[in-house]
Amino acid sequence: MKIIKEIEKSRLTEDALNELKGGESENMKNGILKKYLALIVLIAQIPIVFAQTSAKIDERLELTTVVLRLTGQNAFTRAPDSKYTADIDSYFFKFKDHELINFVKNTIHSRKVLNLPLPVELAGDIKITSKGIALNDLWSLSVEDSANINEGTWTLKEIKEYVRLLNKFYKETNFHTFYLNQTEFYSEVQDSLNKIVSQIDTSWFMDFFGKSFEMANIWVVPLLGPHNFADMRIGKDGKEYHNCAIGLTHFDSLNAPQFDQKTFMLLIHEICHNYNNPICEKYEEDFLPICDTLLNFVGEYLDYYGQSSSILYEGLNRVCEYSYYMAHNSLTDEYLNRRINSEECSGFVWMDEILKYMEVFHNNRELFPTYEHFMPQLKLFYEDVVKKMDNYYLPKMKLKEPQVVATFPVKNSIVDTTISKVEIIFSQPMQTGVRFARSVDNTYNALPLPVDFDNIYWLNEYHYVIPLQTPLKPNSRYGLRVPPSIPSKKYGIPTLPYDLIFETK
């Protein structure tokens, strides 16, 4: 998002000024002046460092995510239940049919990028003043650069109408008062995340990318829940402005907001995007034809990253991210391997090999002063992956990927109504702490099973049993989905979704 960096200004203290006004000689005055100027320089440096590495709540994002929660946007209904979400639902319920909410519903539901609607991307393009909400005239806003979105973007007319209605909503709901009343909660959230932020080694970014660590903003956005994003903009001043936003997913037993190692990893991932993405953009022409070919092999595994550009941007961003972990021994070998295996079964099947290949970069820094200097070599690596996809990479992934190998009833079979349970057998040992009994979607025209949820159990690490509470109806179709969230024990890799459909006599 487009952000103006605020730099705290330092000034001479009143005592210092009084001292300079005294009857000292010119030399003494100069000496004192130098002393205080040196102190000013030192003091002035401190807030800048902390501003770059401290998380904060931003009223524009809070306002935006409240609006999207009222629209029922799935991405903004997944934040954990808390006093904060209860306060929001209670305070804003009467505004759920506001003109703004209907406008957003009608305008953006078909225009999503990575499941985050355009208003989130636009939050940095607006400003809040005593007069209300308006577009930030410090940024050139156009269809091409607003929200940094390549497809599905609003017209400039729609953006202006959205901002007009947002201002109306802001005033009519008295949003600022609500925002101020949440100060204590916001402070808790900021303090909790900043314990994680303080662990980041900012010097690594200079060494790896050749650019200093200059995060204009690290936002913490409670209503983002499990979502997060990064943004890099170039302002009218020609400077790069790096930003990222982190959602809140956990509270402890005392309802205090919590962030953990996963949050740290999200931060590193999103921060790396701000450095990696401009480099990838420079090399798109070289990489995208290769990525088009790779997409044909792994597209079905990439979920919402299913674009050639995602293979370039997201794939190489993971290389940067894991380079940070490996440089700092941030992850245990066991956990690192589990993460790499998970990345491979998510479509980035070359992840283990490319991280090993990065040793060439690390061991030859005189040839490759920065990551960008190594991009031509990474292009050659990608070309080699294409050649070895059929004979090496895909078979390797299949060996790690857990699958449903058998079920009772057998898929598409016809069974007696008296069966008392459904059984699922996996190809690998699974993590037995996970339970599921999900219905299939409506496309199958199948009834949900009468599951006895309290008595679901794992017979062993391969064998999952779902008891039924009542007999099935005759001449009926039933369905059960094995969701893509059941991880294997060895690799931590989830299953592919599997739909079990059967009929009764």
Q: Please give the largest β-sheet.
A: 4 strands, mixed
Low-confidence stretches: 1-52, 112-116, 142-152
User: How many β-strands, per DSSP?
Assistant: 18
Counting H and I runs of at least 4 residues, what is the number of helices? 16
- Helix percentage: 40-55%
Q: What number of domains?
A: 4
Return the average pLDDT rounded to an integer.
83
Termini distance?
Answer: 59 Å
The chain-level structural class is alpha/beta
Approximate strand percentage:
5-15%
Radius of gyration from CA coordinates:
27 Å
What form results from the Cα inertia axes? globular
Notes on the structure:
- The protein is an alpha/beta fold and 505 residues long.
- The chain folds into 4 domains: 14-52, no CATH class; 56-202 and 212-251, no CATH class; 283-400, no CATH class; 404-504, Sandwich (Immunoglobulin-like), CATH 2.60.40.1220.
- Helices cover 45% and strands 15% of the residues.
- The chain has helices at 14-20, 26-52, 59-70, 83-92, 99-108, 118-122, 156-172, 175-181, 183-197, 203-209, 261-282, 284-298, 308-328, 333-345, 351-363, 375-400, and strands at 55-56, 112-113, 116-117, 126-129, 132-135, 215-221, 228-234, 240-247, 250-251, 257-258, 404-408, 414-415, 421-426, 447-448, 457-458, 463-467, 477-482, 498-504.
- The strands form 6 sheets. The protein has a 4-stranded mixed sheet, sandwiched between helices. A 4-stranded antiparallel sheet has the order 11-13-16-15, with no helix packed on it. A 4-stranded mixed sheet has the order 12-18-17-14, with no helix packed on it.
- β4 and β5 (132-135) form a beta hairpin.
- The longest helix is centred in the N-terminal third of the chain and has 27 residues, at 26-52.
- The radius of gyration is 27 Å and the shape is globular.
- The model is unreliable at 1-52, 112-116 and 142-152 (pLDDT under 50).
